[in-house]
Amino acid sequence: MISEQAKQELAAVLGPDYVKDDPQTLVTHSYDGTPMLQSLPDAVVYPENTEQVSQTLKVLHKHRIPLVSRGSGTNLCGGTVPVQGGVVMVMHRMNRILEVDLENLTATVQPGLNTKQFITHVEELGLFYPPDPSSMAVSTIGGNIAECSGGLRGLKYGTTKDYVIGLEAVLANGDILRTGGKLMKDVAGYDLTKLLVGSEGTLAVITEATLKLIPPPKFKKTMIAMYKDLHGAARTVSKIIEARIIPATLEIMDNPTIRVVDDFAKLGLPRDMEAILLIEQDGDPAAVERDIERIESICRGESADRVEVAATPEEALKLMTARRSAFTALARLRPTTILEDATVPRSKIAEMVLEINRIAAKHNVQIATFGHAGDGNLHPTATTDARDQDEVHRVEAAFEEIFEAAIRLGGTITGEHGVGLVKAPFLEWKVGAAGMEMMRGIKQAFDPHNLLNPGKMFAKATRKRVVIDRG
Amino acid sequence: MISEQAKQELAAVLGPDYVKDDPQTLVTHSYDGTPMLQSLPDAVVYPENTEQVSQTLKVLHKHRIPLVSRGSGTNLCGGTVPVQGGVVMVMHRMNRILEVDLENLTATVQPGLNTKQFITHVEELGLFYPPDPSSMAVSTIGGNIAECSGGLRGLKYGTTKDYVIGLEAVLANGDILRTGGKLMKDVAGYDLTKLLVGSEGTLAVITEATLKLIPPPKFKKTMIAMYKDLHGAARTVSKIIEARIIPATLEIMDNPTIRVVDDFAKLGLPRDMEAILLIEQDGDPAAVERDIERIESICRGESADRVEVAATPEEALKLMTARRSAFTALARLRPTTILEDATVPRSKIAEMVLEINRIAAKHNVQIATFGHAGDGNLHPTATTDARDQDEVHRVEAAFEEIFEAAIRLGGTITGEHGVGLVKAPFLEWKVGAAGMEMMRGIKQAFDPHNLLNPGKMFAKATRKRVVIDRG
């Protein structure tokens, strides 16, 4: 609960219209893109500028009130659920592109800016901002920075981290921190910029970001390869990389995903295939043509049943639609969809998909897998029903084993979705006791009273690891 | 001073041959690549593996003995001078390439590995590791990671940070930390990997690194453009970037550098030019030819006096030799050479070079400037004589003003050399009081007894800023 005194102070900072605690507003901000998680905040605030964010944090700091800052809440890790109540700060009013600097190829933006709108804007200027999380039509740049969002182009172009070169952020005590700048090289002290990217709102509230832009590729080509044997698809992924080709996109869909997507999008996908690869290459026309030819030949060499190269942009769009609609299609199957994020070295894709299938069968749950094969970032997706407690428990047990399997294969519990609430109990599996201790120390340095997004990333208890008995 | 007891414990961990405290060894490890800094350690140790590093740190932790870990000591910021005595740990015995993984395009190496040797090895395998600090013939990968080394290819390919995807490191208490992995995406908690890169040995001792490799460019072309007007050269830099071309290399040398390099290397450089740009583009042949043609036309449009494109690899090598010999040539002029690292947004190159010249004249010191124009990373280099105290003070005063000017132009005090001892008094100018406080908190979390490279990055006092009076 927030005292009347604190609410008055917040209203004085933000204006009375921008501090809300009516039931509708509280409910609307009690959940995010993650299923089965909900917790009411005590108030919701809407700052207009950095100064208001700073003053708001000073009020919250004085009264020791927790804060969850958020954009559109599209995250899938419970990252913006206000589990300890307090204030939710919505960044949507701070949504401006402050500058696109054509001499330095940088953009300076506010955190509430919509990702897709930003990408479109820079494309119209003949520039390119590669991070393309699937949520980009709704998500904000600030949210992308908080979660270090990836996307389909991560393989070749990297993720949000690779494009954030400067930040302005407000610390827990209201102080304003500025890091980096329009600089391609800066080694003045510890890299606080990269530390804040992916820190999930637990270290500071990002109020401004300077982003690196790059020249866009001149040409793009799209192809699809279909396999009756999952291993053939996985070997293709490895062989492409081994051939020193880094495609712009290299996506995989397994058989359950293929069937669901075909039901949904009526694309005439072959329902008897074990796996489909969707591949895009971009760059200079000659290089793209050569790469696509070589990839085609690798696919055939690994016994692809069918290989099709899109002849027109429309055909290419149709192919990519298949992949981009995977989540939506899966979400239609059952009332609850849980999209996970286990990631492995790309050479371990086949092993991981087989492990996922084995684990799903063992626990009698439905899990379809698709994802970014080229960077090993898989999205095993369970379709279930939150009202069926027994099934939900089986799904949870399955995902625990999936995380365990990913780590056993040299992977991680999350490639691009973040830790948040959902994966906090598993973080120590990846980073170890020493890693947890250092992360707790960093959190303590930035936020000694644990006011910024409390309850995220650091779980009260680490899950006991599943005992693997392969008899 | 180290107690006999501690020495015996170290000898028990490392073997008696690998703990040295004879005067020769101590003197040899009392300095690094930075002029005018020297401080004797109490002992020098040479671990063979991670376990020995861990055990050594446990001994030092118990006795509260400071540790400076180092590779070849080529850094230019006093980063490995043992200013508080204690133990210097030389990583040269841990110099193996543990694995090059052709399926995942990663290499796993030990920190004492020579940079050039590593680059050559991966090139022989048809792969590419871009970071190319000028010291690479001598430097180690561990040193490059500690300092986040850049180099000539930073503009297009990024710096060491962009290629380190996993680390094993030993913490101050001897615990072993493992971060990242063979993963192109990993958002499990705070990014400790990127935090350790560039942390200058103040947070942990790096014992193993997993590095990302990329396919090499297929073709390269080199050109030179000469200007009687510095602004023409600077505008050329901006225009190239504005034309959406990111060259592999885009270097600048000012007139004092040109004359010195020509004296040294007898390349027949035009001594009356105010600036030379050295430009390389790499990639697919057609794209390279097209870019070089457009760059040539931009150079001529900005009144370049002469533009020459190397017709053969030998000619290209000769051009690049001019740039690569700049430091060596300058170092012949006077007994002491101080190479600095002020960095600005690339659109501010001309302004910054003019500021440097103005400041050098004001303080009556000789400063030549060359560097990585494409990423704004300049190396103003003072030639002086350490025995002339008055002149050295004037040089120091000049560099203080140069740092101030860089920051005023939106730049930083160091682009790729690190903070170390030399720039510690200026760090707060760049990162502010809030940044210093967060960095101190991180240091405290990792190294509560201040044993790892003490005295570096955090100065006892921040320099008062020069008052700029422009009347």
Automatic annotation (TrEMBL), chains A, B:
Residues of the FAD-binding PCMH-type domain: 37-216
Cell wall biogenesis/degradation as UniProt keyword: no
A GO molecular-function descriptor: oxidoreductase activity
Family: Belongs to the FAD-binding oxidoreductase/transferase type 4 family.
Protein name: FAD-binding protein
Pfam families assigned to the protein according to its UniProt record, in alphabetical order: FAD-oxidase_C (PF02913), FAD_binding_4 (PF01565)
Required cofactor(s): FAD
PROSITE patterns in the cross-refs: FAD_PCMH
Alphabetized UniProt keyword annotations: FAD, Flavoprotein, Oxidoreductase
InterPro entries tied to this protein: FAD-bd_oxidored_4_C, FAD-bd_PCMH, FAD-bd_PCMH-like_sf, FAD-bd_PCMH_sub2, FAD-linked_Oxase-like_C, FAD-linked_OxidoTrans_Type4, Oxid_FAD_bind_N, Vanillyl_alc_oxidase_C-sub2
Source species: Paenibacillus antri
